[in-house]
Specification:
alpha/beta, seven-stranded mixed sheet, two-stranded parallel sheet
Length: 326
């Protein structure tokens, strides 16, 4: 950490993180979605507003993306407005948008914000603003050579994303999704990050005919392959739950070792995670379908409707019948 740098945003913390997303004309709609949707899903999964973002543009008008789809914004980028994080999302033509006024505004926000990030070509504006000097950074692979030549005082790497103190940069849409999952994991824990990945079925490459997994492990770093195997067994037996001993045996390890794997990677016992997985499946059925409660209880491995209702109420703060009524 350089002198006078603020604490990283990539650390355990449940205080709402204020984020300003500056979307430039010519950005990829996928880069925009990869920035916004993971934190939107994290709020939904956690039931709290832990990421408080606003989307702005250079002139207050909806910027057109490369697909022609405009992005709705709440207004013009205001350097005087307080924020914890500024994320600049750019694409085609971003280099031409590096006006002196824009660069001065980015520098002003960076002085008070806890972090500033560049997504794809948004990295060029961070570089032009002098925020990459003495730091490691990345950008889209097509621009890598020009980018390195333009910013000789930065250590330009071909990585998917780079975090160097309060500055982070990504190479494109998929790396941005990886970065946001990493942010969610570091702030809220692996369990929430897994839930968010699962919302988007973000997983290792699979054939189109493979069953969609309930839990998507994606590119999350730091998980044990034995954890993946155990979770796959859990999701395959939601209606008739296996014992922890049976899961451990099928995974090829002892129950004690499985407990340690889950404690290290997720911070929960296998039993607690399994119950939460089943209840998450039940909640989707309660909210999104008209399936009778007794059937939902049976589909998610509860011995009775009463046991299901008690577990559901404890997890979500209200009975499934009340949640469905809305």
């Amino acid at each position: 950490m350089m002198k006078n740098e603020r604490p990283s945003i990539f650390q355990p913390e449940r205080t709402p993180l204020r984020m300003t997303l500056l979307i430039l004309a010519g950005s990829s709609i996928m880069c925009v979605a990869s920035t916004v949707d993971p934190i939107r899903a994290a709020n939904r999964v956690s039931g709290e507003t832990l990421f408080d973002w606003k989307i702005v543009s250079a002139d207050g008008e909806p910027p057109a993306t490369t697909s022609g789809l405009p992005v709705a914004v709440s207004g013009r980028f205001d350097a005087g407005e307080r924020t914890d994080v500024l994320v600049v999302v750019g694409g085609f033509g971003t280099r031409q948008q590096a006006t002196s006024a824009m660069l001065a505004a980015i520098r002003k926000v960076a002085r008070s914000a806890r972090a500033v990030g560049g997504v794809e070509a948004g990295t060029w504006l961070l570089g032009r603003a002098g925020l990459l000097d003495g730091r490691s950074a990345t950008t889209h692979w097509e621009d890598m050579e020009d980018f390195a030549a333009a910013f000789p005082d930065a250590d330009i790497r071909p990585d998917r994303y780079v975090i160097d103190g309060p500055v982070f940069t990504t190479g494109g849409a998929s790396p941005t999704f990886d970065l946001m999952l990493h942010l969610i994991r570091m702030r809220l824990g692996m369990a929430v990050a897994l839930d968010v990945a699962s919302v988007f079925i973000y997983d290792q490459a699979r054939a189109a005919t493979d069953a969609q997994p309930l839990v998507s492990l994606g590119r999350l770093d730091g998980y044990d392959p034995r954890l993946a195997h155990a979770i796959r067994l859990m999701e395959a037996h939601v209606d008739q739950p296996l014992t922890v001993s049976a899961i451990a045996r099928r995974t090829g390890i002892t129950a004690r070792t499985l407990e340690k794997v889950f404690a290290k990677a997720i911070g929960e016992t296998p039993g607690a995670y399994y119950l939460r997985l089943r209840l998450a499946a039940a909640r989707r059925l309660v909210v999104d379908t008209a399936v009778p409660m007794a059937d939902i209880a049976a589909r998610t491995g509860f011995s009775s409707g009463a046991a299901f209702s008690r577990a559901f109420s404890h997890a979500f703060g209200e009975a499934p019948v009340k949640l469905r009524r809305g």
